[in-house]
Amino acid sequence: MKEKQSVKELQPYVVNPIVCSVKLDANEGSKDLFKDLVKQLGEEFYLNVYPDDSYIDLKKSISNYVGCEISNICVGNGSSELLDLCIKTFVDRDELILSLDPSFAMYSIYAKIFDTKYMGAESEDDFVINADKFIHAIKENNPKVTIICNPNNPTGSMIKKDDVIKIIKSTDNIVIVDEAYMEFGDESVVEEIENYKNLIVVKTLSKAFSMAGIRTGYLLACEELVKTVEKVRPPYNLNSISAFLATKALEEKDKMIAYAKGIKKEREKVYKSLKDMNVKAFPSGANFLFFHSDIKNLEEKLVKEDVLIRKFGGKLDNHYRVTIGSEDENNEFIKAMKKFV
């Protein structure tokens, strides 16, 4: 049996299989932040029954964390599933999805899977996003859905909240703001979901909450949009263990806040170190730094030092992304970089 043409031509999202002691390639968080929560599962936790499909306990914790109503929340198997659901829900075949260029690779992959069109609006020099030019692209191309990753992955660049609101106002169609890394920035538009009926905010526990392994994300929007997405959401899409651990982690948000504060401090240290080495690093509002280097085979050289970062190719050849890890991990990265600069 042959796959459909859009899948046949698809280049999959590839995860790096290389293993290093200092793993700074995937923007993961601290392995210790919420590890004790697993012990709370206890003997009263049963695996033979389906999850509560309303996920009411998790939604209550999310509601308390972000300050919205339960009716404004949809939960999913990572923010990736929620982005997938949004495209299924709002974009028909051959309609356009507009995003940034460069940005998270999965946006264009979803577009290809669902036989929709995809366009990335190019950023300015040094990957700064010009809101007025982006709005011009929206008005010129009339995308069915616009996706803004803020802070942007892989560049770390930030769009000011006022500019995001200008973008939302520029169209009647859906604007999705992917705030996977926003706990490390300060320009969230979550509090605007009731003010703009075309706004969807997608967030995750994978980054600042350091819980990538439980694959838990959530979508925030006005009640009407949430009800529409819920029509497409499959039942029991989040498993009981993930829902339980996410609920408990959100109840201990102070741990995350302290952790994120530490990451911001380390981010500035690593940024300064790279600049001191005359490496072209770009300002970031996320838990990673994006930088340019002409050092030949830099990724391979760092792997030999037991340090793994993310290498990019194509238009982003000679660009790299390094996750901000623990103080020791960051020091190992800086130490290794100094050998080759």
Automatic annotation (TrEMBL):
Homodimer. InterPro entries: Aminotrans_II_pyridoxalP_BS, Aminotransferase_I/II_large, HisP_aminotrans, PyrdxlP-dep_Trfase, PyrdxlP-dep_Trfase_major, PyrdxlP-dep_Trfase_small. It is an enzyme of class 2 (transferase). The modification N6-(pyridoxal phosphate)lysine is found at K207. NCBIfam families: hisC. Its EC number is 2.6.1.9. Residues 23-336 form the Aminotransferase class I/classII large domain. It comes from Terrisporobacter mayombei. Pathway: Amino-acid biosynthesis; L-histidine biosynthesis; L-histidine from 5-phospho-alpha-D-ribose 1-diphosphate: step 7/9. Belongs to the class-II pyridoxal-phosphate-dependent aminotransferase family. Histidinol-phosphate aminotransferase subfamily. This is Histidinol-phosphate aminotransferase.
